[in-house]
Design brief:
57% helix
Length: 215
């Protein structure tokens, strides 16, 4: 498992890490194999504590500002980004009905990994690992909750152009859909995005559109 080598983790219980990378579709097809759902629950709480601890002790900000920053760095888009940076998609165990790990699965597995490492190595170790992963985003001021749709809409309105979103593809089972949306500015396709919901797919499409020049 790549992430264990990267952070020089010597597991006391390797089964925890296998579980952290096991999607329900895989566990349903393999008797006796646990999915990551319980570890995800624990990891989500541990992640929030680590980020809260850092913001409180290192940034000395007002409560409202800390709450907003914490929400940005623990949201689905953020966790999926961290998982992608670590190459988690190569180690996730999916069932035959799943083509690939979408944004939601990637985010869930990141939290599950945190939960597994916390149980196996303790708080100090996982806290150091999490900050090693996330600190560069905090230092760069990355906002994972940025509203790209509103920004695109405002930009288009300034030049009197229309913005229309369309879902062009849906894949996966009902409980784990992947949507692909495109955004048209005055009838021209300016961006395409994918996500676990129509809203997240539209945000990704708007993000791509904003990277292009809108006249």
């Amino acid at each position: 498992m790549r992430v264990l080598e990267r952070f020089n983790i010597k597991p006391n219980n390797y089964k925890l890490y296998e579980e952290a990378f096991t999607h329900t579709s895989y566990s349903n097809e393999n008797y006796g194999c646990e999915s990551y759902e319980r570890l995800e629950f624990l990891g989500d709480a541990v992640l929030e504590l680590i980020i809260s601890d850092y913001l409180y002790n290192e940034k000395h900000l007002e409560e409202g500002t800390m709450t907003k920053m914490r929400s940005s760095y623990v949201c689905e888009a953020a966790c999926a980004t961290y998982a992608h940076d670590l190459g988690f998609e190569h180690d996730i165990r999916l069932g035959s009905g799943e083509e690939s790990a979408n944004v939601t699965i990637m985010a869930d597995v990141f939290e599950s990994f945190i939960g597994a490492t916390y149980l196996d190595q303790g708080y100090d170790v996982i806290s150091k690992i999490v900050m090693d992963i996330i600190l560069k985003y905090i230092n760069r001021g990355i906002d994972f909750l940025h509203d790209y749709k509103s920004e695109l809409q405002e930009l288009a309105q300034n030049v009197k152009k229309s913005v229309v979103y369309e879902v062009i593809d849906e894949k996966g089972p009902a409980h784990n859909r992947t949507f692909t949306s495109q955004v048209k500015v005055d009838g021209f396709v300016m961006g395409v995005g994918r996500g676990s919901s129509k809203k997240s797919a539209e945000q990704e499409a708007a993000k791509e559109a904003l990277s292009k020049y809108v006249e």
